[in-house]
Structures are given as structure tokens and as C-alpha cells.
Write a structure and sequence with these properties.
The protein is of the alpha/beta class. The protein folds into four domains: 3-98 and 190-276, P-loop containing nucleotide triphosphate hydrolases (Rossmann fold, 3-Layer(aba) Sandwich), CATH 3.40.50; 111-183, no CATH class; 281-363 and 489-570, 3-Layer(aba) Sandwich (Rossmann fold); 371-459, no CATH class. It contains 21 helices and 21 strands. Strands 15, 16, 17, 18, 19, 20 and 21 form a seven-stranded mixed sheet that branches. The two termini are 36 Å apart.
Length: 571
């Protein structure tokens, strides 16, 4: 057992045993779920308060905490008076619903889109397009104009009504929805704050039920969420807040670093978890270059081993189409997967991420090309054994269209597969099954593959009513284009906001900005959310991190990372 391991375990034990109120600053991979559940299973120390609330931001995280309780043979730790769930659900279930007037039922909506609410002056704009915010100092509400979509901004700018009139109309529309019995998460928070200030008849039952409230991933909290937590703390409910401010990437949800730091100061006691059980030493060192405060790298708890360097991939980012490797012209994802393969990491264990989905590989997109290329794509999908169900369904439809055209040449050529099956008088499910079997039995695409496909068409068993006519429906033209390696690769691909909380053996971060190196080297993560986003991406990696940047950004980044003792390689 090495010293780093012992220090990491000791820090976890301090976080488990420390009395609330408590702020736990947990680095990526710190094992905070273990800490939270272990703290819970040791039981509250005050006998008159039997319950503990464990709150996170996703149902998946809450489910994981419940599973750990069951795994440790403590199913009762998931039942009343305890509460394990999302912060949204807790606010509604524990802080709002018990105090609603009996004659005024309310329904919680995840969005105003559920009731198709519209703000209608000289044109309609969905109420969901307006983001409401509350100033904790004044208690006044406003609408964040900076978070309007481009489409809605254009509509309002071209309206004969000014911004203030639109704000007033949005407030009126929301009030009407409330009177009709509907609220969203923002309004439920406003109600929670109102009830928490109502007196002992509201706050007393909370203190009696809960010995402690633990909020995980608190860096994702809005300023209103932090205001609610501050109110709970001041009402005497022991509060434990677990957060990594360096991963705050939801300013569009009204998350704010200053308010979280103020809450940490008010709680008074902080425990640091800086032992990373997830990532290699190289990844910990790389991550440290992207966070504020010039703090030393987190300690990699993983046993020492030969580990990959950080890989910088010179990348060309065209205005449209996939990013390519500047040195070889191949898709950048292929170059990354090759590096992962060298280190024994399979595509299924790889993550590709970026701030915007527009830069990510469209691995579920059909290839462009003639019918032969489309059918070859379908063959690779069906024979891969790794493609997701949506890809397989689409592949079957590609083949079904060809079979329908060949077997029923008089049926309509256009329309959905279902509509064409109806016109031909055959069952859709039966045609799809035949399409799957037909494609699966074809040989691997090659230069003479069109001939093989047409031969297979002629010899395939036919459904009732099939009446082929000459060459109608058969493949023709040029051989299929070569398949790209990423067409059916089972790697994860999503934007940074969606992969937060994940971990993968290998991660590729695509950073297309022209000023990546200057921001990485001299930017302030406290003020630049993009840097915090890159930090989140880098810290998803367990063994290998690769970063795709424009060619002119490679040299300054290499020099900087080398100076910061981050082992790197230009690939």
C-alpha cells in the first residue's frame, strides 16, 4: 500500500466522519459516491432525527446511490424517512407539495412546452424560450436576454414591441399558467423559498425528519438552488455540500462560482478530496493546467504503470463535414482510434467530445453515394455486431426499399417503407425480416459486389405477390465507395455538457477554436467557462487523453505542456 493510496483513503474517511455543516471539495474521480453512501450507512448521530436526504442532479446518480445501499445489504437506508433522489424532486416533494393549499393543486412540468404555452404579442414565441432568473439580493425576477435563442432574438428584434413589453407579456403568460395549475422547476424553487420563510410550522417538520441533507454535484446548482441550501443551513438543518467548482459549466442554468464559494465559507468547514481514483498521472497533470488557483495536480491513486502520453492531433476543421487529421487527411476519429488501439483500448471504450455537436462525428449518419454504397453501409451495420438498434433499423429500411422495388415494380417508388408495403399488400415486419436476412447473407462488399447482389436477388425466396420484371430494382452503376472506419464504431460521442459524470479509458477532445493555445496558457478558468469545459473533458479519461487542435496551435501547446511536466506526443 503506497503513501498516495493511504492519503486518499484518509481524506475520504475525514469526509465520511466529519460533522455537518460541511463543504467537500472533490476532484474528478475522488470517489465521492462512495463517501456519500458510506456517510449515510453509518447513520445519523442524533437519534430524534432519523432521516438523511441524498440529492444529486441526475436520476442515474440517485439510482447508483440506491444500488450501493442494496449492495451493502441496507435496503432500509433507501426508504422513508430517508430520501434519495434528484434536487428537483426533493424541492418539489419535501419543500413545496406538503405546503400547497388543499384547494390549489399544482402540476410540476419539466418545461412549458408540455402545455404549449406561448407569449403572443404581434407574433407567438414559446414561453419555454424565456429563461427566468431571480436576484437573491433583491428577490426580484427577470428574464435573461442573453439566453434567448438566435431565432427568438430575431423575432423580438423585428417586433413592433420592445424588450420590456415582451418581458411583461412573458410574466403575464406564466402567471396565467400558474393560475391554471402549472409550474416548472423555477417556479417550484420560488415556492420553496416562500415556504421556508413561513415559520416553524414549515421548518420544524423538516428538522425533525432530516438529520442531514447531502447535496452532490453542487457546482451545477443555480443561484436559486444555492439560496435554498443557504436557507436550509440557516434554519439549523445539517447540510453537506459536495462540489468541484472547477467543473462548473452550466452558467446558462444560472450557476455562479461566487455564490457557491460564499456558501462554502458560510458552512465553515471544508474537506479536500484530491486523490483521483480514475485517471493516470499524466491526465491529472494535464487537468491541473486547466484550473484556477495554480494548485498542484491531484494525486493519481492508480498503481504506477507505463501510461500513454497526452496526444496532440493536428486537425483540420472544415466549415462543413468531418474534421480530418492534418498529417494524413484521414478522419480525425480514425487517427484517435488507432492511437487507442496501440494502447490496447477498443473503440467501445472511447469517448469523442467537443463543446458543440457540430464538430462531432456523425456516426449514425448514412453515407452519401449511390444505392450500392448505401447497401454496402447497411451490410457493415448488420454484420458489425456492435451497431446500436437505430442503425440496424435504418440499415434494414435501406435494404427493404431495394427489395420492394425489385419484387413489386408496379408499387409506388416514393414514400415510407411502411406506406410502400401497404401499397404492395405485404406486411411491413415480414419485409424488414427478409431485408435483414438478405443483407446478412451477402458477401463482404468488393469491386464486383453489384453482380453478387443481383445474383442474390434473383435466387432469394420471394414473398406472396412478388413479380419481378427484368432489371427493375436491381443494383447498377459504380461499385460502392470504400467504407469509413467510423461508420459503425461503437464509441461514445456527445458534447461536453452531456458527458459530464462519465468516464472512459480513452477520450478525444476536439477543440476547433483559433485561440486554444493562448486561452489554455494564459486564460482564467474562473472567468472562461470554455476552459472549465475542457477540464471536464480531460478528466473523463482514465488512461489516454488526445486533443484535436488546429495545426498552428500545436507548437505553443506542446511547449507549454512540456514546461508544466505533462508528457505529450504530437500524433
Amino acid at each position: 500500500m503506497n503513501a498516495v493510496f493511504e492519503q486518499a483513503v484518509a481524506a475520504q474517511e475525514r469526509a465520511i466522519a466529519a460533522k455537518a455543516p460541511l463543504f467537500v471539495r472533490a476532484c474528478p474521480g475522488a470517489g465521492k459516491t462512495h463517501v456519500i453512501v458510506s456517510r449515510h450507512l453509518r447513520g445519523p448521530s442524533v437519534t430524534l432525527r432519523h432521516g438523511r436526504a441524498l440529492l444529486s442532479f441526475t436520476r442515474a446518480a440517485a439510482t447508483q446511490m440506491r444500488r450501493r445501499c442494496h449492495r451493502d445489504a441496507r435496503p432500509e437506508a433507501t426508504a422513508f424517512p430517508h430520501y434519495i433522489g434528484t434536487l428537483d424532486a426533493f424541492i418539489w416533494d419535501a419543500l413545496v407539495t406538503p405546503h400547497l393549499p388543499a384547494n390549489r393543486p399544482l402540476q410540476l412540468l419539466d418545461s412549458w412546452e408540455r402545455v404549449q404555452a406561448e407569449v403572443n404579442l404581434d407574433r407567438p414565441i414559446p414561453l419555454s424560450g424565456f429563461t427566468f432568473a431571480r436576484d437573491p439580493k433583491t428577490g426580484q425576477e427577470s428574464i435573461r436576454r442573453d439566453l434567448l435563442s438566435h431565432e427568438h432574438t430575431l423575432l423580438i428584434n423585428s417586433s413592433r414591441y420592445g424588450w420590456d413589453r415582451w418581458v411583461s407579456a412573458a410574466m403575464e403568460t406564466r402567471k396565467a399558467q400558474f393560475q391554471a395549475g402549472y409550474v416548472t422547476g423555477h417556479e417550484s424553487r420560488l415556492l420553496a423559498l416562500r415556504y421556508l420563510s413561513a415559520g416553524e410550522h414549515v421548518t420544524g417538520p423538516l428538522r425533525s425528519r432530516f438529520a442531514e441533507i447531502v447535496v452532490d454535484e453542487a457546482q451545477d446548482c443555480s443561484v436559486t438552488d444555492v439560496e435554498i441550501m443557504t436557507a436550509l443551513h440557516r434554519l439549523g438543518i445539517p447540510l453537506v455540500v459536495v462540489a468541484d467548482p472547477d467543473q462548473m459549466i452550466y452558467s446558462w442554468r444560472d450557476a455562479e462560482l461566487r455564490t457557491l464559494r460564499d456558501l462554502a465559507v458560510e458552512l465553515g468547514q471544508t474537506v479536500e478530496l484530491n486523490g483521483n481514483w480514475r485517471s493516470s498521472r499524466t491526465i491529472c497533470q494535464a487537468a491541473a493546467t486547466l484550473r484556477s488557483g495554480a494548485r498542484p495536480p491531484d494525486s493519481a491513486v492508480r498503481p504506477p504503470q507505463v501510461e500513454p502520453p497526452l496526444i496532440l492531433l493536428p486537425t483540420q476543421f472544415p466549415k462543413s463535414g468531418a474534421a480530418t487529421h492534418a498529417s494524413t487527411g484521414r478522419p480525425i476519429v480514425e487517427a484517435f482510434l488507432d492511437h487507442a488501439q496501440v494502447h490496447g483500448i477498443q473503440p467501445a471504450d472511447c469517448l469523442i467530445t467537443a463543446h458543440s455537436r457540430s464538430y462531432l462525428p456523425a456516426k449514425n449518419r448514412r453515407p452519401s453515394g449511390n444505392n450500392a454504397t448505401m447497401l454496402a453501409h447497411a451490410w457493415h451495420v448488420i454484420r458489425s455486431g456492435t451497431a446500436d438498434q437505430a442503425l440496424v433499423d435504418d440499415a434494414c429500411r435501406i435494404a427493404a426499399r431495394m427489395l420492394l422495388r425489385y419484387w413489386y415494380p408496379d408499387a409506388p417508388v416514393n414514400g415510407s417503407v411502411e406506406a410502400r408495403c401497404t401499397a404492395a399488400g405485404v406486411e411491413f415486419a415480414g419485409i424488414v425480416r427478409r431485408a435483414y436476412g438478405f443483407v446478412y447473407r451477402l458477401p463482404e462488399p468488393h469491386t464486383s459486389w453489384i453482380t453478387d447482389v443481383n445474383t442474390a436477388l434473383k435466387s432469394a425466396s420471394r414473398p406472396p405477390g412478388a413479380n419481378p420484371r427484368g432489371r427493375t430494382g436491381q443494383l447498377g452503376g459504380k461499385p460502392p465507395k470504400p467504407r469509413t472506419a467510423t461508420a459503425t464504431a461503437p464509441f461514445r460521442s456527445d458534447n461536453i455538457h452531456q458527458v459530464k459524470g462519465d468516464e472512459h479509458p480513452a477520450v478525444l477532445l476536439l477543440a476547433p477554436d483559433n485561440d486554444v493555445s493562448s486561452r489554455w496558457i494564459s486564460g482564467d478558468p474562473g472567468a472562461d467557462e470554455s476552459l472549465r469545459g475542457w477540464y471536464v473533458a480531460v478528466t473523463r479519461a482514465q488512461r489516454l487523453i488526445a486533443i484535436g487542435v488546429r495545426t498552428d496551435q500545436v507548437e505553443p501547446l506542446t511547449a507549454y505542456l512540456t514546461a508544466r511536466r505533462v508528457t505529450n506526443l504530437v500524433g
